[in-house]
Amino acid sequence: MTRFTIASFNVKNLIGPDQEYYKFMKYTPEEHAWKLDWMADQLLTMDADIVGFQEIFDEGDLRDVITETDLRGQASNDASVPDESKRYHRRAIFRRLAYTPYFEGKGALAVAPNVADGEPGQRRPGVAILSRFGFVGTPEVMQDLPEPVDIPFSALRGADGDDDAGYYRLRRLSRPILKARIPVGGAVITVFNCHLKSKLGEHQKPAGADFPPAADLTKYDPTTRALGALRAALRRMAEAWVLRAEIIKELEAGNPVMVLGDFNDGEHAVSSEIISGETPFKNYSWMLRHDAKTPQDRYTKAENEQITEDINRVRLHSAEKMFVRKSARDMVYTSAFGGTYESIDQIYMSRHFHPDYAAKLGEMEYFSVLNDHITDGSHPEAPYNKLASDHGQIIAHMVMGDDENA
């Protein structure tokens, strides 16, 4: 049996001291030291074999965090893991307590900077993947699209003629998507790490203006701000579709897939459902055929089975949802904003890891969430901590058989 853990960690603006990342925002040397110390403790607690990081401005700082984590892990081993001279050193509990350094053996880090990164005050973060197992081939980065994606809109039913309803064009993702193939046990898993567009509105700035009019809250314009939220949602869903298209390529090639990151939306949001794929109906035999000529033209039983399989084989499953189903728990959250707690960080996996799939490679044993530090200042019992991440860390604990059909 091969056990491994895979995690997502939005670190919240990892950058060196005295560097302005967003307007007027930077860390003092003391704040920077505190943040790196907190991150090393958090990464040590996670102890995940594969970690997808978001909001990385500085690769050097991330490497410093990992190096410090390895030092603390080794110190923990020295204090709590008996050496071979002790008769009880083979006990299973010590295998669980032992820490394996990342930068040892096959461990590797892949970092994808943001191609839209700008001058101080106008910085843009990237993403990274850390793997104790290394990578198969070179990880791939997607952000500037080779060809623009044009998403056309259709005229409404009943409209006269074939009116042009316009289209949305996407040339660049707001943050890169990082794809890595990682060897685990006897399999190679394709892992995608993403950070989709946030819910913060995209407000337009007129030529020559210092700021978008909608940003002036002293002249609050609800309809224009709503339009900004629409733009952000449309971009997020378009980015989700780009990711989905890459996922399908891997699934069509027969590769097991895991997708993790900051989706900036909940599990049931349209953008998340674009990534995961459709959920099949219980029975398509009652449904009118797409080419129905009479009320009796329904899909056959054989077509029902075919449709269901075609949907299921390219569908992804939420680790959080599988855990809630397994454990009968209903309290999982990874972010707090405006006093609302919700899960916007996700780990999705193909049916190769679903417990009900007969040909599964493995399945999830447990799902961890580190979220005690999360607050947005809206709750008196949880004071604001701006240096810790504003996201919880999620870890899926996986087990795989000795061969790919186990």
Structural summary, described in words:
This protein has 406 residues and is α+β, with helices and mostly antiparallel strands. The protein has a domain at 2-144 and 177-201 and 257-269 and 316-400: Deoxyribonuclease I, Chain A. It is 26% helix and 27% strand. It is built from 7 helices and 14 strands. Strand 1, helix 1 (29-46) and strand 2 (50-56) form a beta-alpha-beta unit. The protein is globular and about 80 Å long.
Number of strands: 14
* Morphology: globular
Largest sheet: 6 strands, mixed
Which class of one domain in CATH terms? Answer: Alpha Beta
Oligomer category: single chain
Portion of residues in beta strands equals 25-35%
Strand order of the biggest β-sheet: 3-4-2-1-14-13
Number of helices: 7
Distance from first to last alpha carbon: 9 Å
Unreliable spans:
none
Mean pLDDT: 88
> Which fold name is given in CATH as the topology of one domain?
Deoxyribonuclease I, Chain A
SSE pattern: EHEHHEEEEEHEHHEHEEEEE
Structural class: alpha+beta
Radius of gyration: 23 Å
Summed up, what is this model?
With 406 residues, this protein is α+β, with helices and mostly antiparallel strands. It contains seven helices and 14 strands.
Main features:
Deoxyribonuclease I, Chain A; 26% helix; single chain; 6-stranded mixed β-sheet; alpha+beta
Provide the fold topology.
Blueprint: E1 2-14, H1 29-46, E2 50-56, H2 59-80, H3 92-97, E3 108-112, E4 126-131, E5 140-152, E6 167-184, E7 187-195, H4 222-252, E8 257-262, H5 270-276, H6 301-312, E9 316-318, H7 319-327, E10 335-337, E11 340-342, E12 345-350, E13 362-370, E14 393-400
Parallel strand pairs: 1-2, 7-8
Antiparallel strand pairs: 1-14, 2-4, 3-4, 5-6, 6-7, 8-12, 9-12, 10-11, 13-14
Helix pairs in contact: 1-2, 4-5
